[in-house]
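User: These chains co-purify. Model them together.
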Amino acid sequence: MSWMFMRGSIWKYLQCGQYGRTGDSLHHFPPAFFFNSEPEEVLSIDEPSASADEEMDSAILFGVMRGNVVGLSYYTGVVNNNEMVALQREPSNPYDKNAVKVNNVNGDQVGHIKRELAAALAHIMDSRLAKVEGVVPFGAKNVFTMPVQLSFWGKDENRQVVLNHLKQYGFKLDPMAKGFGSNWITKRAGPSYSAPVLPAVQMSAEQLMTEFDKLFEDLKEDDKTREMEPAEVVGTPLLPHQKQALAWMVSRENSKELPLFWEQRNNLYYNTLTNFAEKEKPENVLGGILGDDMGLGKTLEAIALILTNFHDGKPLPVEKRENDQSYQKCNVTEKPEKCEKGNTNKLGKRKCEKGISKLHKEATCSFQKDTDFDLALAEPATKVKRKAMKKGAIVSQCSAKVVSEKKTRATLIVCPLSVLSNWIDQFEQHVKPTVHLNIYVYYGPDRSKESAVLSKQDVVLTTYSVLTHDYACRSNSPLHKVKWLRVVLDEGHTIRNPNAQQTKAAVDLEAERRWILTGTPIQNSLKDLWSLFCFLKLKPFADREWWHRTIQRPVTMGDQEGLRRLQALVKNITLRRTKTSKVNGKAVLELPERKVFVQHITLSEDERQIYESVKNESSAVIGRYFNEGTVLTHYADVLALLVRLRQLCCHPHLAKNTSFSGIPGDSTPEELQEKLVNKIKLVLSSGSDEECTICLDSLTFPVITQCAHVFCKPCICQVIRSEQPDAKCPLCRSELRLEHLVEFPLEESETSVVEKKSKEWLPSSKVSALMHSLTELRKKNPMIKSLIVSQFTAFLSIIETPLRESGFVFVRLDGSLTQKKRIEAIQCFQSSAPESPTIMLLSLKAGGVGLNLTAASRVFLMDPAWNPAAEEQCFDRCHRLGQKKEVIITKFIVKNSVEENMVKIQDKKRELAAGAFGTKKMSSSEMKQAKIKEIKALIDI
DNA sequence: ACCGCCGGGTGCC
DNA sequence: ACCGCCGGGTGCC
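Assistant: Joint model of the three components:
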């Protein structure tokens, strides 16, 4: 199993923390299992293109036949020998409703499929019985007609239907037999698109992972190891690997080479995959994917790039500040008012208090979530940071000097809201203070709609939500009018869903150079990668058909050649270093060692007694569900029981407020409401990996329906809107009402619950073990700082008591803190002052991507996480760039308990996560089986 | 299109 | 000749 790709899943996890803050979402645990649904039902809500895509993933070759393309002289599209062509239905054709257009790789029409054949194909294509693909064997000199080799791909169960249908029209498919068939395609239609005769042996996921591992294992290529000094205005000295990144990025931006798989032949540029040729030189991708692992300094690398490579390798011309006077003039002089923590309204949006100057609210007021739904723009929300404004619009007005360059100099940076302020900080930190850089934060209701304002900037910062929102009304979106010098997508894996508006909004930006920053370039599936290639405008892969035919299908079918192509492609445009990767054999970053210990805990007799009795009760209930076959319909209840057991492993008091709700029956609306709230809280906080079955992504803005199914609010609202007046639950078809949706109460503090109990405080075996370790550690070295991590914030509260009693100074970081308090807590903890806290109580999922707790070199993980990636992410908060000490992690696991079983499941998940790339999602029945197995394993049935 | 097909002109040897 | 044959017009769907 590869460590590197473990990181991948961790990163995905991180990303969930950032947006949803609620659920894990491992790709191999699609949502269907929980909701007891068939994926087909879900797909029907999705765009047709998405489902077509799914179908193609499992397509087999039905056979091939020869056909004819006619009417060539009427169209401009030309085709080479052995060039791939696309077939497209044209039902609106006035002469023949069966018409089938033939287009070349460029999308130019070449001709039509001959009438009689089109008559046979129309139905097959319209009802998606098969995808029909063409290759023209001799295309070059045909004037009126040309032959085309058609291959039919589809689901196995449609094979006979297609064959019979064709037969009715007098056509017959040749099976892809040796000799003519496969040879023909293989040898003549570009490099190997061969379809094995036997059922495809899928390359195992592990194999694929290993193959990809090798790509970045040890970077030896010249262009990735050469170093470059940044422009003089970059105030921070770059580390060697950062100079390498800069050199590589600059070389990519200034590349005059042809893109991969293109050759110059005679006077034409020739694509060796599709055999397409054209006169115009295909643009290379002036950019790529910066896939460095977190902590290696992607932000700094990007800032260095912006300042260092303006045109022809020359640095960005910037204004030097003569004295601070000119700067002062530009300042926002009005003193910003403080904005108190907003109240949380029904939608979970945090509103700032009324009457506060719109312009000068602090980051504290900003939305915690960056979702399409947050309607941030309609709200009187925020300027993200006052200093942003300082540098932003107001400054730019007085920086009269416009660089004579006709081209725009502006770089657009798109990032999640949670890292927006980080970008501003980093610019401030890394750009010499003597330099004036125009940075405009395009965010908030007062953002300029003048594209001229934006194009004048050096840097424009915005968020994915704003980008997507603007895209919806493109005509009014300056973002989409400016021809950017450069667009940088930070946390670029957020555009991994090619059907999402967010992705489309990003792809639609016009830019000379395009970059994706992400810690997880290769996340789960090839399709994720395709989104990135779309954004990079990688010819010809931005078109799904060519991507599919040249890369995705060959790879998923186990074609070695296809895999090599994919590898070459990824390697060509990606720079990725991990904490452990090496450059010419030398570690890119020396990190101190990290050791994980498991401390087994034996429950006291009293604790064991309670545990066993609850366990027996739970086993009985779950056993009954098993017998009834209703485990999955009672999934939330099962989770509740399991959570209770896990809590009992930590502290008996914890389990008291997780009552088993049972089946909602004749309860009052208030009770039902409460039960639903409890259910959604449970599902989201249990650490199981739930996803929204509509967007198939991690839950953003989770809501629960009356029928107890959880979706993203935007997703389910769209369903309700489109199915009005009688919308049905996508999962169980029960009636849906907008007003019945129950939301996940954000950031609820659980301290009140525990405070009541604090009078009757009792220790537990686990707490005692922790306290023992902590006091021992303090004796040994009182300066060492520790993280105490739990998924149960109430447990953290319980731990507070003995910490106080033993005189430990500690801070606490969990989801209930405001942004401001959060920052305070982190700064306080990171401080090296002698009286600074040595302990941080940390809720497992608190904080976003960048949470840096390197002051700690000890981690006490109080309870095992459902998802091992969550633990890894948590460990990485202190085991990262800047950590000077050895990191020692202690995991407390109660013997003979659900916790031990969770550890076993974790191990299995690690294996799965390592192999997630290139595998399809499990079918819903496989999923159910997996989930049932998991529950069985957890409760020992 | 150096084809096929259409339809008009034409018609012993 | 209700044929054959000739040669011009013509041509995706």
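The radius of gyration of chain A is 29 Å.
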